[in-house]
Amino acid sequence: MGEFEALEQVRARVQSRGDRVILPSGDDAAVVRCDGLAVTTVDAFVEGVHFRLATTSMRDLGHRCLAATVSDLAAMGAEPGEAYFAVGLPPQFGERELLELTDGAEALASELGMTICGGDLTGSPELFLAVTAVGHAERDEHLARREGARPGDRVGVTGVLGGSAAGRLLLERKAGGLDPELGEELLERHLCPRPLVDAGRALARSGVTAMLDVSDGIASDAQRLAECSGVLIEIDLPRLPVDEGVDVVARAAGVDPVELAAGGGEDYELLFTAPAEAGQQVAAAALAAGSTVTWIGQVRKGVGVRLLAEGGAARPLHGWDHLAQPGSEPSP
Amino acid sequence: MGEFEALEQVRARVQSRGDRVILPSGDDAAVVRCDGLAVTTVDAFVEGVHFRLATTSMRDLGHRCLAATVSDLAAMGAEPGEAYFAVGLPPQFGERELLELTDGAEALASELGMTICGGDLTGSPELFLAVTAVGHAERDEHLARREGARPGDRVGVTGVLGGSAAGRLLLERKAGGLDPELGEELLERHLCPRPLVDAGRALARSGVTAMLDVSDGIASDAQRLAECSGVLIEIDLPRLPVDEGVDVVARAAGVDPVELAAGGGEDYELLFTAPAEAGQQVAAAALAAGSTVTWIGQVRKGVGVRLLAEGGAARPLHGWDHLAQPGSEPSP
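^ Those are the sequences you sent over. The predicted structure of the assembly is below.
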């Protein structure tokens, strides 16, 4: 199968959604109507670095790569619009693998109301994907940045943490003895994450001062938010909302569950700051968009992150990433 | 050097241009003002497939990858706006190589008035780049597509052809005996192509019916235009405008210069069709934007491409790509 036949088949499997897309894939470039602000992010994924084919199906891979990229749009509070895929396909991969990848991405695009608008396909010694996701917003005030956290703000996070890291440990057979249904949920959390698009839009408009998504683990993501805002972020580790089953997996793997919740990435929850007086409306807005909020810390003067154990003593993270290979690489 | 320090240094070397970019690289996503139409294209480049590091400096690579991607915007007639780079960097590459790559891309971005707005950096066994370029247009009528060629139209091309292929043969030491200055020009043509942004905008607004850029060689690019428009394109090979020095290089390599002009890619000239009566205004518009136009064929009923030799006999291309490795891979 040549490149052009392959792309024809990919095009036949993806749909235009909404009324923005004037010219989808197939010409020199895609043409999309855009009145206001375009919010654009690019993420790259490489076999052996971000995923292992031994434990990831092509369908899950298509889903995961799009989800991780769109999570950046969610963290801005933008409305997801279009996605573009650049794919490097090794010689042993053929039409079937490419179409499975497409189906996984297209299924999530359909859930999110997005259009896969084009991309590029090339041969490559290693499998890689580079995903460009474009979101839309009417006004800058509707978007949340990483800067803007102020001393006195509270620190909040949506949903629960550690589930993706626990799922990865299960995949790597580093843990066992779990209720099968719970195990499935953790695997799903790792393999098929959902970007929190609705919660992101609701939070960005409800008074948060800074926001990003939890892609590398809340400890390092909080560090980035702290640096961008020029503040010190304290996180009370005992308050972290830990996903169900994480404690069992962690114990079986010989690590503290808090390490998975604070140091494990790819949960794609949203981490944000808000003035104390806005706390109630922020939490209500997130809840209306389907996400719970847990207040896990406070912003102080200084720069950096301080993790606090029970009783308020500073505590380092020991890291658990050596347990799972390949490591989850930070992606900016 | 960690990924974040590296990205800090990259950010320090790129500039925002124009007043569209509200939030450049450094947050979850870039924010760009966009009133009208966004024109978006993605191209991937892989070592050993699209370039060889043995014959390409990192600086030239940054330039070439951006140029090739922006050429798709030129072929639509869009105004180049923003670029995003996803880079997979092998372990033996460090800060110096990354910054050279950045400098090459940034120098061209500056020429074109573009802003490098963000991207992603990851480790990878092989060097690869995926470049997303976004252009802007006020109205759809200002853009040229690949469909739209009609029987009776004339076929035109800007500039001269075969120079990039000849430059590649020189690089690969498949030819010699050339005047050094001419050799330098051909190498420059291959290593540092210029996307014809101004000519593309002028042509798209001057009455062309279909257009694309010559990235894979005029024979295969004409085939694509013919398929998108549902027409037969005849190209009179003796009329092809052949770049200076191509004949000498071709003879030294033992191929017909026409093979390089019609079958060699990466010239990034523009191939288009226009009604006969619009010919004069189309050529004048291109000339005012700095590009000559040569009329090289005609559109007929049917589908496909017919290459005509002296006297009008059909002629196959023999291909010359086996002379140069790695081959230039078609990129849609």
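The mean pLDDT of chain A is 92. The radius of gyration of chain A is 20 Å.

Shout if you want it in another format.
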